[in-house]
Structures are given as C-alpha cells and as structure tokens.
C-alpha cells in the first residue's frame, strides 16, 4: 500500500494536523458569462460559443483560482515530464448536455495548461459506466452495462485531432482498465482501509478535477468531490462501482449507500490528492445527476475554479441555493484535514449570493437516496447519558448544561449518520432511555423549524422548554416532525430524551429554515453552528455507519440493490418494498414475503419493458426517461402487452390478480410508512413466559398457530431458538416480523400418530430442557419415567396419519429435532415471515393463545 503524494510530502515536513495541507485561505473564482471583464459578455441565459465566451471564461477562472502557480510548483517525474491529469465526468456513453463535463470547458483548460506548462503531458481520464466495443471479455461478464465510447460521444476523442491543440501531448485514459495500486487514505479510511487507485491518478504530478455542477441523491450534490467515484477502476470495483468485480466473485465494490457515500467520497478525495478543480456550470443539473435519472438541465453559464476541491464544492453548493454546512462530506473533509468547507473561511472571487439560483433538490420521497440527499445534515456530535432501564429513569433538569465526562455524561460522540444510532453505540439495548445534549449558535433573530425524527419515543427541550414529545413506534423519517421555533441571536441548548423498547434505537435533530416549497426546503440557516461544551476539545468517540466494511450490521432482510448503471434501465431487488425505489419505478407489494422481489425496467422507442419476479404490484412515474415523452408507449410486463401509457401519464399502479392478469390503474396516494404496519399486539407475547407446570410459551403458541394457518397442516413444530425476539404490546410492523425470524421456508411431511408420539419422546430426551413449541395437539409428560415412555397423556391417535409442518432449518436437521432423517418433505413455498404477515392481517389484533399444550407432570 502507498500513501498519497500530498500526504507523504506533508508527513516529511512534519505538518500533519487538523489543518488542511496548504492551510492558507483557499481561493475560489466564479466567472459568469455576463462578467464585464470578459471580452464579449453575454446574458446568463445565452447559448455560448467556444472562442467568444467559453475560452475566456475558463481562462479567467483558472487564472484567478491560481492554476498557474500550481503548475509552476509541480515537479517533473522520473521521465522529466510533468503529468497533468484532468478527471472529467462522463457518466454514460449516451447523455445530454448537463449530464457530462462540456468538452469545450476541458479544451479551454488544456489550452491554458499548455500555455503555462508547454512541456507537460496532458491526460483526459474517466472511469465511466460504459464498456468500449473492443472489450468483449468485459461485455460478456457485464451484459447489463451500456456498450459505447463515452470519450467519443462526449466530444473528447475529437480533441486529439483538434487544430487548436496542435503540439499538445494529449492522451485519453479509461481508468476502468488502468493498472491499479492499493492506496491508504491519509489518517486512515473512514470506510475501507485502502482503495484501488489507477496508476494514471497515482503518478499524476498535477491532478485536476473537472466535474459538472449537479444535484444528486444520498449526498445532496455531485461536483468535485463526488466526481472522484469515477477514479475507481472497473476491473476492481465493477460497473457500477458498488457491485465489485468480477460478478459473483465476492470482491467488494465501493460502498455507495445513502448512509456511507459521504464517507466513501471523502476517502477517495484523500487517495486522489487533487491539486485543482474546474467546475463546468455552463449547464448544470437539478433534481438528479442525469436526465435519465430525473434530472432537469439548468443553464447557469458559469465556470468555477480553485485549488481546494472542498472549498470549490462549498461555493458550488451555495450557488445552487444550498448550505454547504448541510453537506456531510464537506464537514468530513475538514475533519480529515483534506480541505475547507466553510464559506466564511474561503476567499470567493465573485458574488456567490447574487449569482446563486436555487436548484431543485433530489426529491425526499425518492427512496433512501432521496431522503438523505434532500435532508441535508443533522447534528452529529452529542453528549450522552445512559442507557438507563425504562423503569429506573429519573428525569434530568431541563435547565442543566452537562459537561463532558461529568455526572454520568459521556465525552463527545460523533455519529457518522444523520440518524443518531444509539443501538449501535450502546450494543443493542432494550427497554432503555438515553439522554443527549448539544448546543447551537444562531447568528441572527429569525423564525426556523426544528426537524425531528425517531423510531420510538422522543422528547425534546429547547432552552429548558419542552417543545416536542412523541410516544409510540414509527419508521424513522428524516424528518418525522417539523416544529416551528423562533431563534434569537446567540447560543441555544438542546436536550433530548430517546426511549427504546426493541428494534432500532435512533433519533435525529436538525435546525432548518422555514422554506415551504418542498422542492427546496431543508436548508440549515446560514451561519448556524452546533457544538457540545468544551468545543476546543475536538477529540470525539466515533460511531461508524451500520453496513460499512468495518462494522457490517445489516440484517439479512435489509439487503437490497438499486442499479441505474445503464441509461433508461433500472434493476432493483429487495425483501422490503420501500427499499426498492428509483425515480421512475418502485415496488409496492410482493407476491410472497421474505423472498427477494426483483424488477428490471427498460425504456426504448415506443415501449416500456418490465420484468418482475415475486412482485404483486409496482408503480411507474413520469420521471427520468418517462418524463416529457412525445409519444405514447406500450407497457409490456413479463413479455405480455398490458396497456398503452400516454405522455405525461403521472403515476400509475401496475398490479397482477390471482389469475396472472396485469392491469394498470391511476395510482392512489399511499402512506408508505403506515403501509409497513399490518396489525397490533393486544398484549405481550414472550418466548419464555411458561406457566407453572407447562412448557408452551405465548409466542411459541402463536408462531405454531401461524404455521398451521399458512400450511393447512395438522401439527406444527417450532424450534425455540428460531424465535429471535419477543412480540410486545404495540403496533406490529412487517419489519418486526422479519426481525423475529431467520429466513426459513415451511416444510411439511406425513407421519402416523405413532411416529408423532416417537417424535415427542425424542424431544423429551435427556439434556434437552425445553421441548419444541407445538400446535394441533396437546400432551403431558413425566421426565422421571424411562426414555421412550415419558409421554403419559396426549390427544394423538396412533393410527391416524398427520401432516406435520415446521421450518426448513428443523426439517433438514431431522435427526436432531425429530429423531430421524426426513427425506419425504414438501416445500410449501411459504416463508415463516409470509405466514405471519398474513396471520396478523387476518387477526387484526394479536392476543396470546391459550396455554396448556405441553404439560409437565412431576411425581
């Protein structure tokens, strides 16, 4: 493994600290087409020409941003040449303006570099999501990826023969196929210990990042820092970069989830060691990163440039109407000493406020990426007190100002997620209370909102006054609740009481402006800052994001995939439907629970082809490639024609009936959060609440009853350890039922009553303290009797044939659980979770079944 060149130089100079390398105030230049210093200024809504407009705009921006000094400081490599690498943004070979870096911006940059460093070797580099036709070996393994030449379609290949670039030593490099080296992020990786980085990037003497200014999901924006996803070699990380390569090898891709992407791109900024950034903001993209993902091109006629890519991104965020303090990766860059993300610490050449134009954010209802991308950033650093058992909680003074490490309070704890994951930090507590404390400084008097979220109970005090309380269970949204507040200039105290019974344990707190338009809301008021007491002590414990490579806590049923690798195509799979969402298609309901659902949708001329597996209903929306269609399209599902969709059809629901017939109807409004709740438990059901003298528990009886209901069997068995959690008196969510179970299908087999009695005798063997749970029969036993004669009473007819049902785990281990190898089993095609979802829906309210099925008689 190797260190980045900047970090190595800094280490040799002994300047490693929390101050970014080259800690002078970063400069970011903004040049718009109507800048009066330009030779031919034109209005910002004007189509631009290269020679008259774009070339002088780029030249002025890079001149003011300090590129000439960067080039002058570069030291040649062993071959005596200065290698200058320009990392552009070409997402796909098929694209529209605003999707990719405008080749004219890059040409003007190359001309400037050549003038200031005439002997430099220049490279245009990208690792996009396309495969060139001359790589049949890769195409064979990744037939779902677009085949094409992104360098050609984006206009870069023509630059090799451009007369204006005569004499320039220029080459194109597809980073997907470059030699890769393992590089360690400075100070250690936030997600991975090291990253594969192309030789072209590692060996660059000057690395220039040339992105487009765009909105995206998960992290909110994709400009200079997010553009570095493209340095990940495809032959290491796959197409897209999150899949790993080769397919099915188990080699990990880049962590690219909504909860980990900020950390991933911060790490990549560390290993890429970018020296300069030039942002193409001539035509940007609001709402999404490309048109086919739902993006809307926005003409800005601007170019940005500077030698700190985090500072450049901070200015870009402000130009798009957002607060840089809401971009977690900008704050992480500062924490990791990679760059400056605070506007007040950047020298901005240009009127960043006057030139700003609000971009539509990534819609909050576009799945997890939309939720995180729209939300911004909650407060991540807290002092904590607890966990305390619910029954032992003593209210704390709302007027208190806790100090780190005093009176039971923790030191600062930094959470790498907008959801403050107390469950992870405290090791999965149950029936607990945790208190949290932080402070924020408001720069002015103004109205605002407190955006609050939790999965269970939450009470919040602001400056000693209780302003919000929630009791119950829900899906933690960012946010669940918006509480109007009035800010006064100065410091404010926030005290939080979070309660937990079972499952996830997290909360979120954010101060937002009062914007009412949902396209733009959620910005932190400019200048507002959070802290904990003793702010000069920057050391803090860190809580990693669930699912990252150092702390993989993802539950089996949370596995999901949403692939937008190829334009006009989406593939998604999930166990939980609300995790399978793209801008223009989403899964609504499965055929069977606990089996993976999958949808692959493609848009082509005149057709929308959808292939589904285990999907009862899905929805199509007029977004992305389905937005603004000029003609009607035929909808084809699993090869059969279903309907014709007219242009701008809005949103439709596509569902299949029990006879396999698909229909299309206007989509009704669904509360997707409430959809996850299927019933209510009227009382607690436990795995171990055995009445005196009996061995059947309330939850065990209910488990077995649900198996009988689903399979129609005569007798059901349930392994005690196969019930992972209890059921508490409250609403029952589908996620609760998943959490209670391992993935297990229900098997059935036939046995006589005599053989069934032998199974019970085996279950009562010495050393097996707790017999399996049961439904359909009752029996009594006496352990003092000889083995094989311990069942002393039952309602089993020895001559009758019984259909027995149990989970696959038990049946396939028949000798252990049933005293014989079972080979004549039949798979019911029903998962335990699916059986329980239907059973809860049928019952409505779950009550503990009557006990007394397994009675122990003691002499």
- Main β-sheet: number of strands, strand sense, barrel status? 10 strands, mixed
The total beta strand count reads 46
Strand fraction: 25-35%
Our Rg estimate from Cα atoms comes to: 31 Å
Description of the structure:
With 859 residues, the chain is an alpha+beta fold. It folds into four domains: 27-308, LarA, N-terminal domain (Rossmann fold, 3-Layer(aba) Sandwich), CATH 3.40.50.11440; 378-543, Jelly Rolls, CATH 2.60.120; 556-675, no CATH class; 678-856, Alpha-Beta Complex (5'-nucleotidase,  domain 2), CATH 3.90.780.10. The protein has 20 helices and 46 strands. Helix 9 (261-272) packs across helix 11 (328-335) and helix 15 (698-711) packs across helix 20 (832-843). The chain is globular, with a radius of gyration of 31 Å. Residues 1-22 and 546-553 have low confidence and may be disordered.
Name the descriptors:
859 residues, alpha+beta, Rossmann fold, Jelly Rolls, eight-stranded mixed β-sheet, 20 helices, globular
List the topology elements.
Layout lengths: L1 E2 L1 H9 L13 E6 L17 H16 L1 H7 L9 E6 L14 H14 L4 E6 L9 H6 L8 H4 L15 E6 L5 E5 L10 E4 H4 L3 E5 L1 E4 L5 E2 L11 H4 L23 H12 L3 E11 L9 E11 L2 H11 L8 H8 L11 E3 L17 H9 L5 E9 L23 E3 L4 E2 H4 L6 E11 L3 E9 L3 E5 L2 E6 L10 E7 L2 E11 L5 E7 L16 E3 L9 E3 L16 E4 L5 E6 L10 E6 L6 E8 L2 E7 L1 E7 L11 E5 L2 E6 L5 E6 L5 E5 L5 H4 L1 E5 L16 H14 L3 E4 L11 E4 H7 L4 E8 H11 L9 E3 L3 E3 L9 E4 L6 E7 H4 L2 H4 L8 E6 H12 L1 E2 L7 E3 L3
Parallel strand pairs: 1-6, 2-13, 3-4, 3-8, 4-5, 8-11, 9-11, 15-25, 30-32, 36-45, 37-43, 41-46
Antiparallel strand pairs: 2-12, 6-7, 9-10, 11-12, 14-15, 14-17, 16-23, 17-22, 17-24, 18-21, 18-23, 19-20, 19-22, 26-27, 27-29, 28-31, 29-30, 31-34, 32-33, 34-35, 36-38, 37-40, 39-43, 39-44, 41-42
């Amino acid at each position: 493994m190797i260190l980045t060149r900047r970090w190595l130089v800094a280490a040799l100079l002994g300047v490693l600290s929390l101050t970014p390398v080259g800690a002078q105030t970063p400069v970011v230049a903004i040049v718009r087409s109507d800048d009066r210093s330009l030779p031919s200024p034109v209005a910002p809504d004007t189509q631009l020409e290269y020679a008259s407009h774009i070339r002088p705009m780029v030249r002025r921006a890079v001149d003011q941003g300090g590129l000439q000094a960067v080039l002058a400081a570069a030291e040649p490599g062993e071959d005596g040449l200065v290698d200058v690498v320009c990392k552009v943004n070409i997402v796909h070979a098929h694209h529209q303006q605003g999707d990719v870096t405008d080749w004219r911006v890059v040409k003007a940059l190359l001309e400037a570099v050549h003038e200031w460093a005439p002997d430099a070797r220049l490279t245009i580099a990208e690792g996009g999501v396309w495969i060139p036709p001359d790589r049949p070996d890769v195409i064979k393994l990744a037939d779902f990826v677009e085949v094409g030449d992104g360098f050609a379609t984006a206009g870069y290949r023509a630059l090799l023969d451009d007369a204006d670039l005569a004499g320039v030593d220029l080459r194109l490099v597809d980073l997907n196929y470059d030699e890769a080296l393992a590089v360690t992020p400075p100070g250690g990786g936030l997600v991975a210990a090291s990253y594969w980085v192309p030789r072209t990037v590692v060996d660059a003497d000057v690395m220039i990042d040339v992105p487009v200014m765009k909105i995206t999901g998960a992290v909110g924006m994709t400009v200079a820092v997010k553009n570095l996803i493209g340095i990940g070699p495809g032959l290491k990380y796959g197409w897209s970069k999150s899949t790993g390569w080769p397919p099915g090898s188990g080699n990990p891709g880049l962590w690219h989830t909504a909860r980990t992407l900020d950390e991933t791109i911060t790490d990549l900024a560390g290993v890429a060691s970018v020296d300069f950034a030039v942002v193409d903001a001539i035509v940007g993209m609001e709402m999404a990163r490309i048109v086919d993902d739902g993006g809307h091109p926005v003409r800005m006629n601007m170019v940005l440039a500077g030698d700190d890519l985090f500072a450049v991104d901070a200015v870009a965020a402000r130009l798009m109407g957002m607060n840089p303090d809401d971009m977690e990766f900008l704050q992480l860059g500062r924490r990791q000493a990679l760059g400056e993300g605070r506007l007040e610490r950047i020298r901005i050449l240009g009127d960043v406020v006057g030139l700003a134009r609000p971009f539509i954010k990534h819609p909050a209802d576009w799945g997890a990426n939309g939720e995180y991308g729209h939300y911004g950033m909650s407060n991540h650093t807290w002092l904590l007190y607890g966990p305390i058992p619910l029954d032992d909680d003593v209210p704390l003074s709302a007027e208190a100002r806790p100090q780190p490490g005093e009176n039971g309070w923790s030191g600062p704890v930094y959470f790498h997620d907008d959801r403050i994951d107390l469950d992870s930090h405290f090791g999965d507590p149950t029936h607990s209370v945790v208190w949290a404390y932080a402070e924020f400084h408001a720069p002015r008097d103004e109205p605002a909102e407190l955006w609050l979220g939790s999965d269970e109970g939450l009470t919040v005090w602001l400056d000693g006054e209780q302003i919000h309380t929630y009791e119950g269970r829900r899906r933690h949204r960012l946010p669940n609740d918006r509480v109007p507040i009035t800010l006064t200039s100065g410091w404010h105290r926030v005290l939080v009481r979070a309660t937990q019974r079972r499952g996830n344990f997290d909360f979120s707190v954010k101060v937002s402006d009062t914007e009412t338009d949902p396209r733009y809301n959620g910005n932190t008021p400019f200048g507002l800052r959070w802290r904990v007491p003793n702010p000069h002590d920057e050391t803090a414990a860190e809580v990693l994001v669930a699912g990252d490579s150092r702390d993989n806590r993802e539950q089996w049923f949370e596995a999901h995939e949403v692939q937008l690798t190829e334009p006009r195509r989406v593939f998604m799979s999930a166990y939980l439907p609300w995790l399978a969402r793209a801008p223009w298609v989403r899964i609504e309901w499965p055929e069977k629970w606990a089996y993976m659902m999958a949808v692959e949708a493609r848009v082509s001329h005149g057709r929308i082809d959808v292939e589904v597996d285990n999907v009862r209903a899905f929805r199509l929306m007029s977004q992305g490639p389905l937005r603004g269609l000029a003609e009607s399209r035929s909808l084809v599902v699993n090869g059969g024609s279903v309907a014709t969709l007219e242009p701008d059809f809005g949103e439709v629901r596509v569902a299949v009936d029990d006879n396999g017939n698909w229909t299309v109807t206007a989509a009704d409004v669904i509360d997707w959060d409430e959809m996850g709740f299927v019933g209510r438990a009227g009382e607690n059901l436990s795995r171990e609440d055995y009445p005196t003298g009996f061995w059947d528990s309330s939850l065990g009886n209910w488990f077995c009853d649900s198996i009988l209901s689903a399979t129609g069997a005569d007798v059901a068995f349930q392994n005690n350890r196969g019930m992972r959690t209890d059921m508490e008196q409250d609403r029952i969510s589908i996620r609760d039922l998943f959490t209670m179970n391992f993935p297990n299908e229900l098997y059935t087999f036939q046995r006589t009553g005599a053989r069934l009695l032998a199974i019970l005798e085996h279950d009562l063997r010495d050393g097996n303290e707790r017999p399996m749970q049961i439904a359909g029969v009752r029996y009594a036993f006496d352990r003092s009797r000889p083995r094989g004669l311990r069942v002393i009473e039952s309602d089993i007819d020895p001559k009758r044939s019984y259909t027995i049902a149990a989970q696959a785990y038990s049946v396939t281990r028949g000798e252990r659980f049933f005293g014989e190898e079972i080979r004549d089993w039949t798979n019911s095609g029903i998962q335990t979770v699916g059986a329980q979802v239907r059973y809860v829906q049928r019952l409505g309210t779950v009550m503990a079944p009557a006990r007394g099925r397994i009675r122990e008689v003691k002499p």
